[in-house]
Amino acid sequence: MGIRNGLHLILKIQPALNWTPSCPEAVYIPTGLETEPLYPESKEDTVVYLAEDAYKEPCFVYSRVGGNRTPLKQPMDYCDNTLMFEARAEYEYQLTVRPDLFTNKHTQWYYFQVTNMQAGIIYRFTIVNFTKPASLYNRGMRPLFYSEKEAKAHHIGWQRIGDQIKYYRNNPGQDGRHYFSLTWTFQFPHNKDTCYFAHCYPYTYTNLQEYLSGINNDPVRSKFCKIRVLCHTLARNMVYILTITTPLKNSDSRKRKAVILTARVHPGETNSSWIMKGFLDYILGNSSDAQLLRDTFVFKVVPMLNPDGVIVGNYRCSLAGRDLNRNYTSLLKESFPSVWYTRNMVRR
């Protein structure tokens, strides 16, 4: 990540306040005056976070059960006492998104932490190595922002922010490929805060485990929702499967048709986890319709097919470096266990 001035960028993720905005968040309306920053190779800029160094340690250590839970190290030293001259009216940060592990592509998702900011100053962030030619950012979508001080003082969670938002084609990279940039400006509400930016509302493997633990400890819902382990991933994380139906004392349950739902085959598509949570909240609820559905069907639910990819921050792939959504027909059980066992469960 390239940088100008003294903001600290860290890939350390914290849990967030669960809240619902009081009104729909406004989309960004382009003015036609948005700038398109270009960042040629320059040795004058100060690099404060270098992903190539931060990820030298094996990522399997960070993804496996019982792995290293300390934050990834910050490889660059800071010289906050050094006087820096900047003629611009805003502080500019050039960021490069790490590709999915063991690939050289799939750069369309981000979630990072920043600290050491000053309130009231215009900061510009530009992510320079996206690969898709079109984006919802040119149709009003805005980056997500979370402030720990805002959460503590005002109970405000994730919110859409940003001005001067534009997604555009930039200059070719060193490999000759054309990339696309996302740029936006923002003024932080507090000095020395700890803040986060994200592409979509985060939903982590820990969030899922806490949610399932709540179901398992509920004396009512646990009667008709049984949680089991479908399989283990390459990093030995558990892939859970939920069986939801009204229990019967005889074999009549075999006459019920099955409904199979899965989510989060692509780690960066966090919206699928929120949709799955909404479905589970409903089907495990006490409404008459939910009761009728449980009486009529057997629901088999795999809420997170790719926990390894979620844990290491991939956008699309598993730790095999492959898209699980393209490998449902594969016979390689050891390489793609979650989709192999899901397919086997469907066939039964």
UniProtKB/TrEMBL annotation:
Top-level taxonomic group: Eukaryota
A Pfam family matched in the record: Peptidase_M14
Residue ranges of domain Peptidase M14 in the record: 201-348
GO BP, one annotated term: proteolysis
Keywords assigned: Carboxypeptidase, Hydrolase, Metalloprotease, Protease
SUPFAM superfamilies for this protein: Zn-dependent exopeptidases
Catalysed transformations (reactions): (L-glutamyl)(n+1)-gamma-L-glutamyl-L-glutamyl-[protein] + H2O = (L-glutamyl)(n)-gamma-L-glutamyl-L-glutamyl-[protein] + L-glutamate
One GO location term (cellular component): cytosol
Family listed: Belongs to the peptidase M14 family.
Name the record gives this protein: Cytosolic carboxypeptidase 3-like
Gene this chain is encoded by: LOC116550050
